[in-house]
């Protein structure tokens, strides 16, 4: 504790990660503050003749605008042909290899391939190519060649692939090309030209294509077809219903929808969650209606003192519990809005209930309620403070709800670990606890050191002095 | 900052060329619609556009007014509208609405859509469906790569991660291949490509095909080797709290497109936007440092600055004149930067102290070590009970699941139930997504699964069996983190001293507690020039590794520095901590790494992209 500064720095920089702590405000922080002061003291000088623009702008040095001709030259240069032999080997991307279709005669060599990245393909270019292509359109591009052309952004037509076999061949080649853009394009064509039943049936064994279709339908918000597709695949899990559910904004409709969901084949675990969700929404609708009325009526004190910030509808369970602990804490267990009732109905864990009630009552500064939460009686009728949460956390929660020192003190004192207790006590200025702990540790040095940290002439200082001056005390 | 840097590190190629190319192509495309026009820009393209062009560039090419795409009816009165957008169906639909509304009121305008980096057939299908096809002209702006810094290039495609890994949509595979192709033709030819992951393999194939399709010129290679890695190979690293300065700044203030906005809590004045890159001399020296070293550095720097200013005392007029003209400007610049970063550090300290960062880190380290798991679980539980940050809780749950190879069924159910109670049942969808990705799963007794699979397999035909295997494999997807960690020595023995000031390995980016798996793989593969000897590791990572040599690679080997310039492409995003680790590795081994990422990510961005509680 009393290491010299240099020692401490050494310690800081040498040991493993435990050494660095974000909690330690004293040390690094003060160093930082020093540097800040140093820098700030210079400020005046700087501001004397500050040409803002000069200093403010820190930007990437962009080169002057290159001319278009420069760019065109650059592209032209990159087009100088060398050898065309493949420089890198193909690797297996674990898709089933497809039988090449037998229309071996390729026309692609007749058209000069356009590189995608380099050349600027203007609309006019496309048009002329399209025109040119039309001449060849009655031809027989194989499914494979068509996919290749699609990948390269060349003109193509899918209309002539009318047999199911051709369509599927098209799809399979698209999938094996790993180009999602092309896969989706083919799927759009299949969706248009095939009955749903046929399409869905074929997709069942084509997972990659299936996922592309799901994504496409999601993106185009084609809810109806998406649901049909997922239902046909027996995927009634959360993805299907969840999306539909979220699109319903009216709470009553939402409740009815949830009710209809209860019969769906969710996993047993998820169906319990959906059931809870339904019950909760039902409950929230009732509470909201009653409370809104009570608030408007202006007769219930708590709503006047702490107006509700938002409606409780669609809030998570814990938020609802907090709300009930805040506004309806004293209600008997029989009412819908009673916090105990919520706890019972949704089987909220002891710890969860405790944390939430603690925060809510502390926020209201209802310290007696807080106190009561901890109090348990043993069989002899003695009371003692018990908590499912470590007292360190309790202090943290209370402090975040701006509990006064007198309240904090009670709970800091209950922290078991002496070191932790002292650091918490110091942090929250619970002087008595620090003093008592040092006294119990019989550490005169520390006590003496602490004397400098309490206010001059305060009761704490007097207490320390008394202890220090008491000749009967034994110190380490 | 005493790094045992090797002095023979090669120079990085100049990537400003990429910006110039992109700008010139944009100008060319704008000129395709001659005359005055209003330009609508998609929100997430604004910052990237800012990095390569400015308003005056646009004005020079007859752009009159600039608008952000907001999915609302437009107010523009121009008779020519140009839309600069990502190829998204939602945006195209909106443009159709605009055009159809004009039609309804008998207003005639010309429309042009510029898709970047490429257009998708699905977007054109929307134009067709809405009866707009032919009324608009479309173009592609091949703006694949945005250099964010000397050694960072981003595709600025955050949706890559979700689309590819969660939805299984391969629309961006070719984009990745094209980006690689562009780099290859400007800075290649590459001689060696390594990679791991399904998407990496596909991107490699797409690139290879594009190389074969196109023509190429022979030139002196500037980049010799390439490493492709899928984000789902390593989820642990991006889920850890970042403690290196640049990563920490990203975690707290969110760096967007190389730029961060510091609020009044940092500047104690109005908010400022600051570019964070190697041009910022102060930042450049602390970006890769562990946060605990940053204070020391900043105070030293402040002292130096003071001394430099003090020099002016006792100067005569002439000396003062030189001082003002030569030094003052630099000093002022430094002064401004210094106070910014001091302010930022202060604010970071405050925020972290408030949220029990120390305890959080302790929990993370325990999880990485596989130590005191029950304590970790109850820490996470309290986190959830208290409704502390929803993302933070999710992050810890995922970290617990990956490091433990899934949660025990009892824990999984209880934590999930509590999570849903605290943050809403809507998160059922989130859990489904996380399970699908293998980020948060229930432990499955492995044997039961395979036995069941083969039994069922015998009963049904092949097709269905294939489907079953698919279903099972997503359940059985294990992270095997513990085994990997042992094999690759990712978690140093606890209790060992670790000097964060003089880091001895990449673990320093996580306070000496963990060597990032992604970077460790890169190190090992480069060292072995392939995957030989790493068979066990790749098996644990579900395979999909490759190492290929190009025909031009064999002879030119070791001839030039290019072999030591290594391009690492992260498919699905990369964190600043990983970049810091690679910079460290580069200094140690005399490499220079260029990081190409589909986007810069961190734990929050990664998890936010998997949420589904919004429509």
Q: Your description of this structure?
A:
The complex is a heterodimer of chains A (476) and B (615). With 476 residues, chain A is an all-alpha fold. Chain A contains 25 helices and two strands. In chain A, α8 crosses α10 (207-219) and α20 (391-400) packs antiparallel against α21 (405-412). Chain A is elongated, with a radius of gyration of 37 Å. The model of chain A is unreliable at 1-6, 8-20, 45-85, 96-123 and 236-240 (pLDDT under 50). By secondary structure, chain B is α/β, with parallel strands linked by helices. In chain B, 51% of the residues lie in helices and 12% in strands. Chain B contains 26 helices and 14 strands. Chain B has helices at residues 16-31, 46-52, 55-60, 89-104, 121-129, 159-166, 173-187, 198-213, 236-239, 245-253, 264-267, 281-286, 291-310, 317-354, 357-369, 373-385, 390-403, 409-423, 428-437, 446-459, 462-476, 481-488, 517-528, 535-540, 576-589, 603-608, and strands at residues 37-41, 63-68, 80-85, 110-115, 136-140, 146-149, 152-154, 192-196, 225-230, 259-262, 272-275, 545-549, 565-571, 592-597. Chain B has a seven-stranded mixed β-sheet, sandwiched between helices. Chain B is globular, with a radius of gyration of 26 Å.
């Amino acid at each position: 504790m009393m290491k010299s500064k240099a020692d401490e720095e050494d310690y800081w920089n040498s040991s493993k990660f435990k050494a660095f702590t974000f909690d330690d405000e004293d040390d690094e922080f003060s160093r930082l503050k020093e540097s800040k002061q140093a820098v700030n003291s210079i400020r005046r000088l700087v501001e004397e003749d500050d040409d803002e623009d000069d200093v403010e702008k820190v930007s990437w040095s962009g080169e002057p605008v290159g001319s278009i001709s420069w760019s065109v030259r650059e592209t032209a240069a990159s087009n100088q042909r060398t050898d065309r032999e493949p420089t890198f080997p193909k690797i297996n991307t674990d898709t089933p290899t497809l039988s090449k279709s037998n229309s071996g005669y390729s026309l692609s060599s007749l058209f000069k391939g356009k590189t995608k990245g380099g050349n600027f393909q203007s609309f006019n270019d496309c048009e002329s190519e399209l025109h040119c292509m039309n001449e060849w359109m009655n031809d027989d591009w194989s499914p494979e060649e068509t996919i290749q052309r699609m990948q390269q952004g060349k003109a193509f037509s899918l209309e002539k692939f009318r047999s199911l076999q051709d369509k599927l061949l098209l799809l399979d080649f698209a999938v094996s090309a790993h180009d999602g853009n092309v896969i989706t394009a083919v799927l759009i064509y299949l969706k248009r030209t095939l009955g749903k039943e046929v399409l869905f049936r074929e997709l069942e064994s084509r997972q990659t294509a299936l996922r592309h279709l799901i994504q496409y339908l999601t993106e185009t918000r084609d809810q109806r077809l998406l649901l049909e597709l997922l239902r046909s695949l027996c995927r009634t899990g959360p993805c299907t219903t969840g999306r539909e559910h979220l699109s319903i904004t009216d709470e009553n409709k939402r409740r009815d929808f949830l009710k209809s969901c209860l019969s769906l084949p969710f996993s047993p675990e998820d169906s319990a969650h959906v059931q809870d969700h339904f019950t909760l929404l039902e409950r929230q609708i009732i509470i909201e209606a009653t409370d809104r009325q009570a608030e408007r009526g202006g007769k219930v004190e708590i709503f006047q003192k702490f107006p509700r910030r938002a409606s409780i509808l669609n809030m998570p369970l814990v938020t609802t519990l907090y709300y009930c602990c805040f506004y309806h804490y004293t209600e008997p267990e029989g009412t819908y809005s009673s916090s105990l009732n919520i706890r019972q109905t949704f089987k909220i864990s002891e710890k969860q209930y405790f944390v939430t009630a603690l925060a809510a009552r502390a926020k209201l500064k209802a310290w007696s309620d807080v106190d009561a939460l901890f109090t348990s009686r043993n069989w002899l009728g003695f009371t003692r403070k018990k908590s499912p949460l470590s007292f360190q956390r309790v202090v943290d929660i209370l402090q975040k709800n701006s509990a006064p020192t007198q309240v904090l003190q009670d709970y800091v004192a209950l922290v078991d670990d002496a070191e932790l207790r002292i650091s918490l006590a110091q942090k929250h200025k619970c002087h008595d606890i620090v003093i008592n702990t040092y006294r119990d540790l019989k550490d005169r040095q520390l006590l003496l050191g602490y004397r400098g940290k309490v206010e001059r002439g305060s009761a704490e200082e007097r207490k320390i002095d008394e202890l220090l001056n008491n000749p009967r005390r034994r110190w380490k | 900052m005493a790094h045992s840097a090797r002095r023979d590190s090669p120079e990085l190629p100049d990537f400003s060329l990429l910006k110039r190319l992109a700008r010139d192509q944009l100008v060319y495309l704008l000129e395709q619609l001659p005359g005055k026009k209003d330009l609508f820009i998609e929100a997430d393209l604004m910052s990237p556009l800012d990095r390569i062009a400015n308003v005056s560039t646009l004005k020079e090419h007859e752009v009159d007014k600039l608008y952000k795409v907001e999915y609302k009816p437009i107010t523009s009165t121009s008779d020519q509208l140009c839309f600069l957008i990502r190829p998204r169906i939602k945006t195209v639909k909106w443009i159709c609405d605009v055009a159809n509304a004009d039609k309804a009121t008998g207003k005639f305008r010309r429309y042009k859509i510029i898709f970047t980096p490429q257009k998708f057939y699905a977007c054109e299908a929307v134009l067709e469906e809405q009866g707009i096809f032919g009324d608009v002209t479309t173009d592609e702006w091949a703006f694949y790569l945005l250099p964010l810094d000397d050694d960072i290039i981003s595709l600025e495609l955050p949706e890559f991660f979700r689309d590819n890994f969660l939805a299984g949509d391969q629309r961006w595979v070719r984009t990745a291949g094209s980006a690689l192709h562009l780099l290859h033709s400007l800075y290649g030819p590459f001689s060696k490509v390594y990679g791991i992951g399904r998407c990496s393999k596909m991107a490699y194939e797409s690139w290879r095909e594009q190389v074969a399709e196109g023509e190429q010129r022979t030139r002196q290679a500037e980049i010799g080797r390439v490493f492709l890695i899928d984000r789902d190979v390593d989820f642990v690293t991006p889920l850890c709290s970042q403690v290196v300065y640049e990563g920490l700044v990203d975690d707290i203030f969110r760096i967007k497109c190389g730029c961060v906005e510091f609020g009044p809590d940092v500047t104690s004045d109005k908010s400022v936007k600051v570019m964070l890159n190697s041009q910022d001399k102060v930042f450049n020296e602390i970006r890769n440092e562990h946060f605990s070293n940053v204070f020391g550095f900043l105070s030293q720097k402040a002292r130096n600055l003071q001394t430099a200013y003090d020099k002016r005392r006792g100067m005569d007029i002439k000396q003062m004149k030189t001082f003002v003209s030569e030094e003052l400007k630099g000093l002022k610049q430094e002064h401004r930067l210094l106070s910014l970063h001091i302010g930022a550090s202060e604010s970071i300290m405050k925020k972290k102290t408030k949220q029990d960062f120390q305890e959080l880190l302790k929990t993370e380290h325990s999880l990485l070590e596989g130590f005191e798991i029950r304590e970790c679980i109850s820490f996470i539980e309290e986190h959830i009970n208290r409704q502390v940050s929803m993302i933070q809780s999710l992050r810890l749950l995922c970290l617990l699941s990956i490091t433990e190879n899934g949660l025990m069924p009892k824990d999984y159910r209880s934590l999930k139930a509590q999570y849903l109670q605290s943050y809403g049942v809507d998160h059922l969808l989130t859990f489904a997504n996380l399970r699908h990705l293998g980020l948060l799963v229930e432990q499955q007794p492995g044997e039961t699964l395979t036995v069941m699979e083969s039994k069922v397999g015998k009963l049904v035909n092949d097709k269905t069996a294939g489907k079953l295997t698919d279903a099972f494999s997503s359940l059985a997807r294990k992270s095997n983190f513990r085994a990997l960690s042992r094999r690759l020595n990712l978690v140093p023995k606890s209790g060992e001293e670790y000097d964060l000031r003089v880091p001895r390995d990449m673990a320093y980016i996580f306070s000496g507690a963990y060597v990032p798996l992604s970077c460790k793989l890169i190190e090992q593969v480069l060292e072995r020039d392939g995957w030989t000897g790493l068979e066990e590791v790749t098996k644990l990572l579900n395979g999909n590794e490759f190492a290929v040599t190009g025909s031009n690679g064999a002879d030119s080997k070791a001839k030039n520095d290019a072999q030591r310039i290594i391009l690492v492409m992260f498919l699905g995003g990369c964190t600043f901590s990983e970049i810091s680790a690679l910079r460290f590795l580069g200094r140690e081994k005399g490499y220079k790494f260029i990081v190409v990422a589909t986007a810069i990510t961190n734990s929050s961005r990664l998890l936010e992209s998997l949420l589904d509680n919004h429509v």
